[in-house]
Design goal:
This protein has 289 residues and is of the alpha+beta class. The protein is 33% helix and 19% strand. Helix 2 packs antiparallel against helix 3, helix 3 runs antiparallel to helix 4 and helix 6 packs across helix 7. The radius of gyration is 21 Å and the shape is elongated. Belongs to the RecO family. Keywords: DNA damage, DNA recombination, DNA repair. This is DNA repair protein RecO.
């Protein structure tokens, strides 16, 4: 069950609390305060493998199913992405109708063992500001990334916590270019498509005075070494300082913002293949994000 009592401290046998990624002094600390209520949540043992009770999660997308139901693409902290059948959710008086909204934390309960579980209960948790205007569009972009890169039933607790932080930062109107780059990089790392940006594939430290390329199949390579070995390379050339800034999650430099955008576009386009993100084109057209 989900608890809100601040006076009760978690025991070692309980699942870990949600840990804020922003530490004291971090520029994102202010945004993280809006999620402070979520850091007090902890989830006890579920009823069984068949019935799972009150798991913290978000709605990524909904699909109509027959006349009155919905299929929910949910992102949960403990179970990863799940497909949940919300029976009767489109009926006017359904208790689920007004609850299954994107970008709001929910306590989700479901039953079943097949790939399509049945949603048995959904409760609004609260504690987060709603997204609006450009932040809302960025939120849909982030959701689409999760749908495309995260396999079902593959938990990514660190990614879930960073998703929570990302929504809070967007709601507080922090610069979208910085918020999105931070999320994109962690997403690629958590799903196995990117590694550390302060070491090359030969385990050499990245230095500010050199230039690098990120080979999607090998990893980070020193441009001068590739030229010496007469190896061809593709993708944008990135300054060492930019890579170190990205590793520190520091996007205060205009050059870092520009080069990190080029790098993330290249990597995302490469890994997504022939099916690009629909929201990405809208963001590029409207804001050059």
């Amino acid at each position: 069950m989900i608890h809100l009592d601040e006076s009760k401290q978690p025991h070692s046998s309980e699942a870990p609390d949600i840990v804020p990624l922003a530490m004291s002094g971090d520029p994102a600390q202010k945004s993280m305060e809006s999620c402070s209520v979520l850091t007090r949540f902890r989830t006890t043992e579920s009823y069984s493998d068949y019935r799972i009770a009150e798991q913290l999660g978000f709605v990524l997308h909904t699909y109509p199913y027959r006349e009155t139901s919905l299929i929910i693409d949910a992102f949960t902290r403990s179970h990863g992405r799940l497909a949940l059948l919300a029976k009767g959710a489109k009926r006017p008086y359904s208790a689920l109708r007004g609850v299954l909204q994107t970008f709001q934390p929910l306590a989700l309960s479901w039953a079943g063992k097949s790939k399509m579980r049945t949603l048995t209960k959904a409760e609004w948790v609260g504690g987060m500001r709603p997204l609006a205007s450009d932040a809302l569009l960025c939120g849909f972009y982030v959701n689409e990334l999760l749908v495309r890169f995260c396999a079902q039933e593959d938990p990514h607790i660190a990614l879930f916590d960073h998703y929570l932080l990302t929504l809070a930062r967007l709601a507080h109107q922090e610069p979208a270019v910085q918020v999105l780059r931070s999320f994109e990089l962690l997403l690629l790392r958590e799903t196995g498509f990117a590694s550390s940006l302060d070491k090359t594939v030969t385990r050499q430290s990245v230095v500010t005075g050199r230039s690098y390329v990120f080979d999607p199949e090998k990893g980070l390579c020193d441009v001068e070494m590739l030229k010496t070995q007469k190896n061809a390379f593709r993708g944008p050339v990135i300054a060492g300082q930019t890579l170190l800034d990205m590793e520190r999650d520091d996007y205060s430099s205009a050059k870092t913002i520009a080069q990190s955008k080029a790098l993330m576009r290249f990597l995302l386009d490469t890994y997504l293949g022939d099916t690009p993100l629909s929201t990405r084109h809208i963001l590029i057209d409207l804001q050059n994000l």
